Amino acid sequence: MGTAAVENVRLVLAAAVARGLSPGMLLAEAELEPHALLAPEGRVPAWSALRLWHVAAERCADPAFGIAAAEHIQAGSYGALGYAMHSSATLGEGLRRLVTFFRLVNQRATLALLEEGDLVRVRFLTEENIPPDMVRHPVECVLFAVLRFTRKLTGATVWPLSVSFQHAAPAELSAHSRAFGDALAFSQPHSELVLSRRVLALPQRGADPSMAEFMERHLRRLLQELPPEETFLVRVRGVLLEELRRGEPSLEALSERLRLSKRTLQRRLKQEGTSLQQLLDEVRRELALRHLSDSKESIAEVAFLLGFSEVSAFHRAFKRWTGSTPGEYRQALP
């Protein structure tokens, strides 16, 4: 499911603790272990990090929790990435490094820098199965942090030409207006800051090209060491395996687990050249062969483990897969 930098967890906790919340309680609700915070460049499951954002914002009852959290980001936050940005020669170099290495922050999100004529768009992108309201706080945090970064490192008072968010507007907008100005729009196709392209050429006050290059080399090594991301089909198969323990997996149960509509799930599977029934068949066949070969379980027990309500249905399916019955297959094993 992808990972996120442990600094995401530290950032959320710092903002929540400043509001009087217990870090232990928040970590427990997000299913995160305290020892996960110890490694300097450690990583945690991306979904747990996102859940922590949601839990903390809900407990603080703050519709602008992401904006408040951005205030806790310091020069050394996010380790080598933070130092590489701060030592870049120009704002444009710093932003390009942030975009290039943003996967180190979170493997399930992308930051894009789109240069269009006199404009530049800093756009936050997430996977299509994640509802916009679920990521509202990290999105607002990242975009406000980018804006603070432009001001702090250049000394220039940079205001966006416009700011848009995919998520819906909160009831109270005063914190958003203070952070981004009044050119705000919600429920839009993209979450992005729009800046004048001229700001990319602004020199940074802490420029150190040698340090920036050194940090970039380190960041490239870290990028190569990231755990491989699961493909969509691997994720679906993983959920299928878990759902089989409860019986026959349904389209409704899978779409809910994957946070996709039933229609979207079917469309994505079709794009991959398969279907839910075909994947289920493949998973069951692999499991059946493995259980019959490597375990002492009875054929009835194997049928139950594969989600079949009747042993006869398992027999028919196995004969279709292999041309023999489960009993004949097991007897023929060396």
UniProtKB/TrEMBL annotation:
<dbReference type="InterPro" id="IPR009057">
    <property type="entry name" value="Homeodomain-like_sf"/>
</dbReference>
<dbReference type="Pfam" id="PF12625">
    <property type="entry name" value="Arabinose_bd"/>
</dbReference>
<dbReference type="InterPro" id="IPR020449">
    <property type="entry name" value="Tscrpt_reg_AraC-type_HTH"/>
</dbReference>
<dbReference type="Pfam" id="PF12833">
    <property type="entry name" value="HTH_18"/>
</dbReference>
<dbReference type="InterPro" id="IPR018060">
    <property type="entry name" value="HTH_AraC"/>
</dbReference>
<keyword id="KW-0805">Transcription regulation</keyword>
<dbReference type="InterPro" id="IPR032687">
    <property type="entry name" value="AraC-type_N"/>
</dbReference>
<feature type="domain" description="HTH araC/xylS-type">
    <location>
        <begin position="234"/>
        <end position="332"/>
    </location>
</feature>
<protein>
    <submittedName>
        <fullName>AraC family transcriptional regulator</fullName>
    </submittedName>
</protein>
<keyword id="KW-0804">Transcription</keyword>
<keyword id="KW-0238">DNA-binding</keyword>
